[in-house]
Specification:
This protein is an alpha/beta fold. The chain has nine helices and nine strands. The chain has one domain: TIM Barrel, CATH 3.20.20. Helix 4 runs parallel beside helix 5. The radius of gyration is 20 Å and the shape is globular.
């Protein structure tokens, strides 16, 4: 087993299905359209720096056309108390295919990801399902995740990793994921401000604190030793940080944003721990050049740490492999000790 630390990158790939309940119609269109430029550019950058990444993909995006999407729908839909959270009514109004509707289809982008070395395609559930919202049920989640796995398999993908939309980790649903052969998920940082909760629009204290945490170390470094990762029912690879997008009004804070990430990455490399960075492709759909400038600076720092500390790039699935390998090795050593001591 490798004894060096590593950088894990996961991306929540959702297009309009992830924000339909947050923004009014047209308000976020520039960001969503920008994903058509962002993903090829990300893949080119990842290839250059040999970055292994996990793309947690909403199942709806696989459909090449409206009929394929309708055919893939689960038998049960989530019955959220807040009906505006459900994406299913939106299906009636979307275009017929990716050529006519770049906001709701992503098959060509998934194909580009699939064809790029070191990229893992995971799931972001089928419908961008909210696991902590009142009204939805266990059976509805089971139906959703089954549809997500089915459509991924139909396109040749063996899904091993899940990222829960809005980071709403529902502990009761982890065993359901295990039953469909998912092995790992992205958990939340171990700090009260990152405790999973139902979603509320608008500014509030917790959101402001998390924003501040992207610039100043308010909650800790959030780096993780492999041997300390939870293994059951799934391997938990918690987030270390959200790569917050560039904002012109906060340009003067960019050095702090960079320093916040780099200091934690360096700590992970020195301590042979995991640093898990995540974002959405649509976060980079506006102010794209500035966002890529920041990302490339981060990847340049990663290369330095790779050279000095053997810091390695991993997908979520690869970290799960390492954890299971470590556990198997530990179990083998323990058994050998018991044999030598005459206890077996």
């Amino acid at each position: 087993m490798k004894e060096n630390g590593g950088l894990v990158i996961s991306l929540d790939f959702e297009l309009n299905w992830g924000i339909h309940d947050v923004f009014t119609k047209g308000e976020y269109d520039e960001n969503i359209r920008g994903v058509r430029e962002v993903i090829p550019r990300l893949l080119k950058l990842f290839k250059r720096y040999e970055i292994h990444a996990t793309w947690a993909t909403v199942g709806f995006l696989y459909a090449k056309n409206k009929q394929e999407l309708l055919t893939a729908l689960p038998k049960e839909y989530p019955t959220y108390h807040r009906t505006e959270l459900s994406p299913y009514p939106t299906i009636e109004t979307i275009g017929e295919n990716e050529e006519s509707d770049c906001y709701h289809y992503g098959a060509s982008l998934i194909k580009q990801i699939e064809q790029t070395p070191y990229q893992e395609i995971g799931t972001h559930t089928f419908s961008h399902y909210y696991c902590l919202e009142p009204g939805q049920t266990v059976r509805q989640f089971q139906a959703d995740i089954a549809s997500a796995m089915t459509i991924a398999k139909q396109h040749g993908h063996h899904v091993q990793s899940i990222v829960f939309p809005r980071n709403q980790v529902n502990e009761d649903y982890l065993r359901i994921c295990k039953k469909v052969k998912i092995r790992t998920y992205r958990g939340n940082e171990s700090h009260w401000m990152y405790t999973p909760r139902k979603f509320n629009k608008g500014l509030h204290l917790n959101r402001l604190l998390k924003c501040g945490d992207s610039y100043l170390n308010l909650s800790g470094h959030h780096v993780y030793k492999l041997q300390n990762l939870e293994m059951e029912p799934l391997v938990n690879i918690p987030s270390s940080a959200f790569l917050r997008p560039y904002h012109p009004n906060l340009q003067w804070l960019e050095p702090l944003r960079f320093k916040r990430i780099i200091n934690s990455m360096r700590k992970a490399a020195k301590e042979k721990a995991i640093y898990h960075l995540w974002w959405h492709p649509h976060n980079m759909g506006k102010n794209t050049d500035q966002n890529f400038e920041m990302l490339e600076r981060i990847l340049e720092e990663y290369v330095k740490l790779q050279q000095s500390e053997q810091f390695t790039s991993y997908s979520m699935g690869e970290v799960a492999d390492l954890v299971e390998e470590m556990n198997a090795s530990t179990s083998c050593v323990t058994r050998q000790q018991l044999v030598l001591e005459g206890n077996v």
